[in-house]
Amino acid sequence: xxxxxxxxxxxxxxxxxxxxxxxxxxxxxxxxxxxxxxxxxxxxxxxxxxxxxxxxxxxxxxxxxxxxxxxxxxxxxxxxxxxxxxxxxxxxxxxxxxxxxxxxxxxxxxxxxxxxxxxxxxxxxxxxxxxxxxxxxxxxxxxxxxxxxxxxxxxxxxxxxxxxxxxxxxxxxxxxxxxxxxxxxxxxxxxxxxxxxxxxxxxxxxxxxxxxxxxxxxxxxxxxxxxxxxxxxxxxxxxxxxxxxxxxxxxxxxxxxxxxxxxxxxxxxxxxxxxxxxxxxxxxxxxxxxxxxxxxxxxxxxxxxxxxxxxxxxxxxxxxxxxxxxxxxxxxxxxxxxxxxxxxxxxxxxxxxxxxxxxxxxxxxxxxxxxxxxxxxxxxxxxxxxxxxxx
Length: 391
Known about the structure:
Layout: H1 6-15, E1 27-32, H2 48-55, E2 61-63, E3 71-73, E4 78-92, H3 99-104, E5 111-116, E6 118-128, H4 134-141, H5 151-155, H6 163-169, H7 174-183, E7 187-189, E8 192-194, H8 198-215, E9 222-223, H9 224-231, H10 237-247, E10 248-253, E11 256-261, H11 263-275, E12 281-282, H12 283-293, E13 309-312, E14 319-322, H13 332-342, E15 346-347, H14 348-355, H15 365-372, E16 373-378, E17 381-386
Parallel strand pairs: 1-5
Antiparallel strand pairs: 2-3, 3-4, 4-6, 7-8, 9-11, 10-11, 12-14, 13-14, 15-17, 16-17
Helix pairs in contact: 8-10, 8-11, 9-10, 11-12
């Protein structure tokens, strides 16, 4: 392209009926460079926090397998990636000067010849989203750990997963994955993350609670050393410590390690053990058996079972059955479909434990219910049912 002269630029301005006095004196003359295909360029719109991450030399990772929607992860957050189209063509001009820079540099040449290196009609937009962590439990549950003597473990054909494997397979940031491993009480065995088989976990917990009972230790001060000493001949010491970490809070007193046992979590585990073999359980009978089954000095309460079991008040007599939040779908609409399939009308108190984990940042359970359910009054109580017919 021939270089334009100032006279040609002024003549063009006059034809376009533009007043040069209202414009900056510098003029960009654009031409397409030989490599201006633009196809290999992707634009990503970043919020200031993510820009700072990159500027500090940290990396952002795109995660997802072939059949999954891509997400972008920083060290501790996860973002959905969506393509946003623009009505204006976006041009990439190396060394392009903004109006602010031109104002600051009044002596700059009045005609700047710039070559366009590429262009784009869209860009990637990021939206903070919940990490997709359901798959983490699913992968680890393929092959739960049944203890050192398990024949199944030696012959297992299932994959085992290191931290590195999980980072490649789970659509969440490293911090979110490591936090979730803690939440689901996973433990590292020979470098691989494992979840304990529930029966094996109960066997370990039973050893510990029986020892606490026989030694008459207060539940708030269970000594690690004595537990390892007494139970080390029955089970691997790291498993004893893992169960204490799962069901207690570790602290140091006078140089010795103790655990304060979580009463609610132990009561909940015992309830799961009692309920998992019954389809439905008469509520009053269950409450009696449950209280008798927990360690001495612990008190069972139905609110310990939020997100684990559901009471059916409409049946006579009232019953209770196992319904675990982690077994429900991760997608919002699918989750509500599944819940309305189990029960047609829900009170807010009953449904909350089963949708609480779907709340995005600053979102309330009320907002979710407004979007996915409709409310009505039943015998003076507000209940929610599906917005769409459930097949």
